[in-house]
Amino acid sequence: MRGRPLRLYHYPGFGLVTLLCMVILYAPMLVVAIYSFNAIRSITVWGGFSLAWYLKAVGNPVIQAAALNSLTVALAAASTATVMATAAAIALVRGRALRERNLAFALINLPLMVPEIITAVATLVFFLAIGFRLGLGTVILAHIVFCIPFAYLPISARLEGIEPWYEEAARDLYATGWQAFRHVLLPLLFPGILAGFMLAFIISLDDFIITSFVAGPGATTLPLAIYGMVRTGFTPEINAVSTMMLGVSILFVTASWVIGRRGREGGGAKP
Length: 271
Prior knowledge:
- It contains 12 helices and no strands.
- It is mostly helical.
- The chain has one domain: MetI-like fold, CATH 1.10.3720.10.
- α1 crosses α12 (236-266), α3 (61-94) packs across α7 and α3 crosses α11.
- It starts with 13 loop residues before the first helix and ends in a 5-residue tail after the last helix.
């Protein structure tokens, strides 16, 4: 018994509890997705299959503008956060031993531990204190801050799996530090960088709480637009938009996980 791995699913009732948790988590999403194809306006009575609400949602100017804002914010925030997270990971993992390394790691991951509402209020107060006008720029800056830890985690995990021998061998062959980074470390690290970017992108795309606090006129993102539509009346059009966002989220999170896993298993990080 001592050498056997612990298998929780062998415990009586564990499978039932797991199934119940899965139903509670995902059944509402499944209902939303199903009724997004409803042919009638009702969100509780099935009236046949139709794509009309998807066509209406795609052709809605409000949703189009909000989707463009969301993509702009997500691309800018994820790109900047990924660059900063990559630099931080290299400094903490590959840099010289720092006495304050644990403190730096805690500061980078602080947005993951602080309640999002606290971050939103603090960010809003900061922008108002320095006289920064609320708008799309403040949304991007706020998203960059809380996206950094999401990008940092897969990048640092990938970097810790890459032995420093490759860079040392490049330096022995008279490569400069930049050349060793560009031609050796960066290709090996790229799966982690891509996984971190995709994770940060979808986190930014789906954010509502912080965005609702720091968004100004003309900075309505897709989650804010959905919230505004819900307040005026729930329709299958909202189900359609929510289902499309859910599909994009699942796609990006799954791709991020697959890329990160393949990078760890077959990236040639270890001899």
